[in-house]
Amino acid sequence: MHFVTIEGVPYTWLNQLQKIHALVFDDANLPLEKLESKDGLICIFAIENEEVLGFKIGYTHPDGVFYSWLGGVHEKKRGQGIASQLMKQQHEHIQALGFNKVRTYGRNERKAMLMTNIKHGFDIVSTFVDDKGRHKIIFEKTLV
Prior knowledge:
Order of helices and strands: EHHEEEHEHEE
CATH superfamily: Gcn5-related N-acetyltransferase (GNAT)
Helix content: 25-40%
Oligomer: single chain
Organism: Lysinibacillus parviboronicapiens
Structural class: alpha+beta
Strand order of the largest sheet: 1-2-3-4-5-7-6
Protein name: GNAT superfamily acetyltransferase
Domain N-acetyltransferase: 4-144
Largest sheet: 7 strands, mixed
Number of helices: 4
CATH topology: Aminopeptidase
InterPro entries: Acyl_CoA_acyltransferase (IPR016181), GNAT_dom (IPR000182)
Shape: globular
């Protein structure tokens, strides 16, 4: 397995990204326009045999903090540390770009991701209810 980091929209990997996104997020669509609208988009893929096993996507939030937006691992490859490796790759890359803080949101229904965030040094800084009525937890980590 190796990692591919793309700054900007990952046009070459777009079809595979959309397929794995749908698998991870209950058939949810990830439109190209949504990716193209994000300033400072960074996509990291875990690749094996030219197939995307997992992904981590984030972008520069208007307040200057890097927002780790979406991520997931194919269900057949979970439990192998791929999400942790993707997170590590993301944090190293954005730190090299000059970011000193990363933020992400989590939901109680996705306990594995909540635990991964805590394991990797994120702090819970707040909660809110989004416009769809879902309770979300805000995590932040200072990069050292």
